[in-house]
Structure formats: structure tokens, C-alpha cells
Amino acid sequence: MMIPINELLSRIRWDKKFGHGSFEIGYYDRLLDRIRRIPFSKIVFDQEDGSTIQIIDRDGVIHRLPLHRIYQVFRDNVLLWDRKREK
Question: Residue 36 maps to which CATH number?
Fold first, then answer.
């Protein structure tokens, strides 16, 4: 079984050795009906709500994203975590 997404995101944020690299998340965009990849630098972590993250779109608008809609995590353009393989 793979690491839960909330633990992986925390590890990327706080483990300097592990978190070295260029990270992206792939999340399910319901409007586009596909997986969208965004850089980790566009993610804002909410101290109050550990079940969501906030993402900043191209226009600078912040959107809440539930963690269950994150399907993939990439490091240096290589797939590191995939929700489908988690089960």
C-alpha cells in the first residue's frame, strides 16, 4: 500500500532531502473532465483544514481542492504517486 496523499504532501513540504526537486500534482478537474497538472509552488496549505488544499489558477484566483481529487504526484516529471496504484 502506498503512502496516503496527506502524508506525501507533508513529506514534500517538510523533509528537505525528500522534497528536493520539481514537484507537480495531478488533480481531477471536473469542468474539463480530465487530470490537470499544476506545480507544487501553486499550492497553498490551509492550517485550519487538513482535508483540502488551495490552488492558484492562471488568473490568480484561489480554489479549494479536496485531497481526494489529487490523483497523481510527479517529481522532476516522473510519476511518484498514483491513486489508482494505491489500492
Answer: 2.30.30
Q: Cα torsion at 1, 77, 47, 4 (round to 10°)?
A: 0
Task: Tell me the chain's radius of gyration from C-alpha atoms.
Answer: 12
Using alpha carbons only, give the angle 14, 15, 20 rounded to the nearest 5 degrees. 110
Summarize pLDDT for 21-35 with one digit per residue, the tens.
999 999 999 889 999
Let me know: does 43 contact 57? Beta carbons within 8 Å. no
Predicted confidence (pLDDT) per residue in 55-68, tens digit: 988 888 888 999 99
Number of domains in the chain: 1
Question: What's the predicted TM-score (pTM) here?
Answer: 0.87
CA pair distance 11, 18, nearest whole angstrom: 7
Q: Give the residue numbers spanning the domain of 44.
A: 5-86
- CA 55, chain centre distance (Å): 9
